[in-house]
Design goal:
single chain, elongated, alpha+beta, three-stranded antiparallel beta sheet
Length: 96
């Protein structure tokens, strides 16, 4: 690898990662330690390539297409059944 390649990489500290993702430092450390987020260990601290954070956030992003599964008639959709009939009317039971 050439020196030009490394000069383009911007590294973040765990604190900067936490600020960027708006999570706690402990959550940021967990992402790094579990390997969910690519990182480099420098002595006792970690450095995270900024591009790795951007890639992670893109992969983990929620897309509005996920809302399509909430449509009635599809699995997982319409949590509550619609009540039929007019509002406020009671059905009469025979014999009463």
């Amino acid at each position: 690898m050439t020196d030009d390649t490394w000069s383009d990489v911007r590294f973040l500290t765990v604190y900067e990662l936490a600020l960027m993702m708006r999570i706690s430092k402990m959550s940021a450390y967990r992402l790094v330690r579990t390997g969910e987020l690519e990182s480099i260990r420098v002595g006792r601290s970690y450095r995270i390539p900024e591009q790795a954070v951007i890639s992670y956030m893109r992969e983990a992003a929620f897309t509005p297409a996920g809302l399509a599964s909430l449509e009635p008639g599809k699995p997982g959709g319409q949590r509550f059944k619609r009540q039929t009939g007019q509002a406020g009317s009671k059905q009469k039971t025979p014999g009463k």
